[in-house]
Amino acid sequence: MHSLTLAAILLAACASTTKDASDTSNGGTSQTSASGGSNGGSAGAIATGGTSATAGKGGASPTTTGGNTGTTGGTAGSTPAAVIPTLVGGNYLFSFDGYVFEVSPAKGGRVITFSLDGKNILTGPSANPDNYGSTFWPSPQSAWNWPPPAEIDRGAFTATVDGDVLVLQSQPSAMVKLSVTKRFSADRAAKAVVITYEMKNTASAAATWAPWEITRVPPGGMTFFSLGAGGTAAIGTWVPMTLEPAAGWSWFDDATLQIADNKGRKTFADGKGWIAHVARTERLLLVKTFEDVAKDAQAKDEAEIEVFVDSARKYVEVENQGAALPLAAGATRSWTVRWSLRALPATGTFAVGAAAVVDATKSIVGGL
């Protein structure tokens, strides 16, 4: 099904002139999102505070009621034409300038394709029928353990299109007393996609949650980020991966990892508002930017940056979390993440600290 959909995507892109299970650990930073986390963290603290909101780096302004900014795209020398999401085979596509960004409302509103010139950086269901593409969870994971809340992770979302913004709405989760709205738009001028996640507290009492984005990519690549003052943390019984320093950043090279005990691996770290991944086979660079989160604002037994490798070596999870904040009964908070995808040179190899990778990343994150 995924391959047929991707074929339809590529046709749409050409026609457009504008355009073993997942780890059970929880993650951590200021908002919920996650896969892979430590078992045994405590449930999200119940709070009496009101609602708060954050926004992703360079993304839409934060609001307490959700919403996000529409984007425009288009031709050189003028305001780029807006990229309008189109419905193809039950999924919604943003197709522009060689990019295809595909979202499945039927499968938890998850992202199943982010491709450039026909090369997709995300995993499909062949890697794992449940754990593929990019999804969203509330954090900490200790509040729901495993599996993730069905209505939020894999249930059907209601879809509407508001101009150039795709809006997906989940059903309320009886387990965590939350509903989730996802707003997607394309920033064509910046060659980026903007995702705003909104969590609404459907309980009768306040609760503390953090947002958590889990993005699954094929094995064999490199995941890297700028290490924050909080450093790395040992959480639960997870065995962390080795991080290598280069270009002032911390790098995990999955090609060098050996797993002999049939157990997944997970690293927890404080970051500086971004995480990136290189897919060697596709020769693509994915950079996700978001609001930086102080160590003491991260969810219990979670982290701003989390990287998970499943024991079967079918996928790697590139995870980021927002701040853990009190959410009043009936209140909504938002959290924005920007995705940027770039092609890397067609020849040569990509080792830790490779100049081409560093330069492409700095063009997006600057000096962070």
Describe this structure in words.
The protein has 368 residues and is mostly beta strands. It has one domain (2-16, 27-48, 75-148, 206-325, 337-365): Beta-galactosidase, Chain A, domain 5. It contains three helices and 22 strands. The protein has helices at 2-15, 150-153, 355-365; strands at residues 86-88, 91-96, 99-104, 110-116, 119-120, 134-139, 158-162, 165-169, 178-187, 192-201, 207-217, 222-225, 232-233, 244-246, 249-253, 265-269, 274-279, 284-289, 305-309, 316-321, 325-327, 332-343. The strands form three sheets. The chain has a ten-stranded antiparallel beta sheet with strand order 7-8-9-10-22-18-17-12-15-14, covered by helices on one side. Strands 6, 11, 13, 16, 19, 20 and 21 form a seven-stranded antiparallel beta sheet that branches. Strand 14 (244-246) and strand 15 form a beta hairpin. It is globular. It starts with a helix and ends with a helix.
Brief digest:
This protein is mostly beta strands. The protein has helices at residues 2-15, 150-153, 355-365, and strands spanning 86-88, 91-96, 99-104, 110-116, 119-120, 134-139, 158-162, 165-169, 178-187, 192-201, 207-217, 222-225, 232-233, 244-246, 249-253, 265-269, 274-279, 284-289, 305-309, 316-321, 325-327, 332-343. It has one domain (2-16, 27-48, 75-148, 206-325, 337-365): Beta-galactosidase, Chain A, domain 5, CATH 2.70.98.
